[in-house]
Amino acid sequence: MYTPTPEEIAFAFDLGNPDGSLVHVRRGDNDAWRLNTTTGSYFVKGYFPTTGGQFHGEHLTDQLAFAMAFERQALEAGVDMPMPITPTDPLLGWVTRIEDRLFRVYRWIEHRTSQPDQDVSTWLGRTMMQVHQLQPLGRVGLPQWWRQAVQSPAAWEGWFARARNRGASWAGLYLDCVPHILAVTARIAELCDVAPDLVTTHGAFKSHNIVMSPSGPILVDWDSVRTDNAALEAGRVAYIFGAGEPERVRRILAAYVAAGGDLGWAGPDVFLSVTRNHVQVLSERIRVSLGEATATRWMGDRATIEAAIGETLRNLPGTIDQLRYLASTVGNLGFA
User: Fold this and answer.
1) Where a domain ends, among 58, 85, 108?
2) 212 and 312: one domain?
3) How far apart are CA 234 and CA 240, in angstroms?
4) Has residue 183 been placed in a domain?
5) DSSP of 28-65, one letter per residue?
6) What pLDDT band is residue 51 in, cutting at 50, 70 and 90?
7) What would the DSSP string read from start to end of 123-156?
8) Which pTM value belongs to this model?
9) Domain interval for residue 16
10) 101 and 46 Cβ atoms separated by less than 8 Å
């Protein structure tokens, strides 16, 4: 994997003369470095060449083209977000190529990562609504990627039969969990063609993508832009940032509604995207366990995958009940 020199990055983005080396700060879906130069401090992102289109198109450049167009809209609308740097010789928008690798640069934000005890509820609800207002699509239905969670009863039965043959530790949980899974996926299938309020959105409202600058929270990492249902994304984001605690979840959703968000149609389904994610990740891990797919980096080793499957299966019925109760507790926001 090619790592550029500080001089190459500084030249490609007209950043002045480097003041020290590239300092590696993160490896996840991409590499990230900090670079100080005579003109300031910068965040450098290097993409992996094998990364695909994720949500739009086959290739990384397809996804980035779609994402950067939306990112530009968000900048123009005043969303709290970092400022990208235009390269001197762009390959695409804010992206340039050095050797066999694509790179982007932003101005560095002096920050601390958002901590669990920091209440960003009002900002988060307002910012979600600000993002959802940018590009409403004016049509009904859930995006195609939601359907990845919907597997037939025969598929689940077949997976568990193979698991029993292999002696998998979680194979005996079929009757306790799969009826709940099928009820959830049946509801997703019902909504696939009728759910209102499809929008383009940031796509990764997660705690590691909110940094606390001296002036307040900043929403970073706009590479995962995708379409989603506005109300159902709001429910999932509120659940994640509220850590499932009713009062914290309620504050986020109240801020979203106060900013103009519409949760009216969702009712008891407002947290359906939370359950969808559990079921989708579960099915992905099961396919890896059975040799039908290759493990991705975030899954860990085989023992970790097997343990996670068992834990999810044991907890899922209770999680579904909790989410149903949680939806009822926020009813006086006008959507349950």
Assistant:
1) 108
2) yes
3) 10
4) yes
5) SSEEEEEEEETTEEEEEEEE-TT-B-TTSSSBHHHHHH
6) low
7) HHHHHHHHHHTT-B----S--GGGGGG---HHHH
8) 0.92
9) 6-108
10) yes
